[in-house]
Amino acid sequence: MSEFFHQYFDFHIMGAHFSEVLEGFLKNLLLFAVVVVLALIWGLILALVRQLPGRKLIPLRGLTIAYIDVLRAIPLLIIILLISGGIPYLNFLPKDIRIPHWFGQPDPFWYGVLALTLVYGAYMAEVYRAGIEAAQGGQMEAARSLGMSHSQAMRHVIVPQAITKIPAPMLNEMISLLKDTTLVSVVALGESVLVGREVLAETFNSSAVLLAGLMFLVITLPAARLVDKMIKRNQGKITRGAHIEVA
Amino acid sequence: MSKSRLTALFAVLLVGVVSVVVAGCGSSSSSSSTGGGEESTASSGGEPLTIGSDIPYPPFEQGKPGSYTGFDIELMEAIAEKIGRTAEVEDTSFETIFRDVGQGKFEAVISAATITPEREKAVAFSNPYYLSEQAILVKEGSEITGIEDLSGKVVGAQQGTTGQELGKEKANASELRPYPEGPDAVNALKAGTVEAVIIDAPVAQNAVEKSGGVEIAEKVPTEESYGIAVALDNTELLEEINAGLKEVIEDGSYTTIYEKWFHLEPPKEIVG
Predict the structure, then answer these.
(1) B214 vs A97 pLDDT, higher one
(2) CA-based torsion, A65, A67, A73, A76: positive or negative
(3) A201 interface with B at CB cutoff 8 Å
(4) For labeling, which of A169, A182, A236, B220 is most exposed (least CB within 10 Å)?
(5) CB contact under 8 A, B178 and A188
């Protein structure tokens, strides 16, 4: 048992490698910050395309649904490996795009951004959809009968209401996203888990890996509490006869 | 009606899943027992000797669960036979391998592991069974001809290996990327995201032969040797392994296994 504690709670090792692990964790946060913006936009685009009306757009809607389903059905780790292993071979693209080193970040960072955005865009599209569908209830028809076009109704009636319903489930997706940034370590991005494992290889002690886990806790635990609070508040609305909570 | 139908469908699905799982377990255990079965009869059904190894690391360790093979694995099986036991190899991760053998998760480690003073603080090593060099692996036609050309370049290595240490000490690279497995680093080299990879020479040679498109720019002697590791206090097993290794070298099976996997004669320092 004491060996177990020594293996994972060696505070001397944690202290000695704190700044390295923190630097790795900041890389997780940076990756998260870039992806969260892109995925929120990409997810909204997907969700809106999915809701487009009319027979002519059936193929486009089908493609969007297929994209959302497939990207959520494949393990993220595989997407990361496919992107980092595949994109460099696309010779018709210029080298700066195949092997990007933008803004001083190495190519694994940008492969991670692309993989996480593609996958989390799909997850977030589902959250938007749940919000949009919860806000409908005849309002689309009402807005259309007042002479609004589909896009006007979406913009002025449906989406503003949907936006108020999605923060809690969206925050849940963001918590998952932050944790999943560690998967990019598989293509040798120097984030917190990779740094922790470096220390493990050097010292044969896992405390730095646990330290990385603790850093995530500092952010994800309060965020999880916040999600709970939001859901409770929404449930209050339901009992007063408001809309049903989504997702 | 529809509810009971749904329940029936669910039950059928459940039975299906369970039977697939059971069949899967059954076949994997039977295949592993047949895999080791022939050897176990040869070694008079000795007690299993549990071995940890980070697979894949061709040509030292490769293959699928139940049929692992490679230079290390075959050598270990031969040594185990000499001491009247049957080697049972388990795939594990290199950066935790010495911790795990120390804690008794398996009895010994054979995983192309270089004997270093740092590692000797954590585990006990057998006599050397292999002498190694590091290789600078590059794309065919690369301008890099040696370790001094790696200055300012993006270089790959496997995490926790001697190649990574050599890179840190001598390469002066702009970035040294530690990949979880050796083949990941070779793939990154082929894709062009790193310009060179520092890795054990036989692994590099294997990549040149099997994958193509890459070549060895330079071999760097490291005066390294590989050893089989056991827990620090397991001196009894260590003595048995050393004796078994000596027998395997003397009766010529070491040379046979070496030539099979490296297409080279074994070094005189080992076979005498």
Answers:
(1) B214
(2) negative
(3) yes
(4) A236
(5) yes
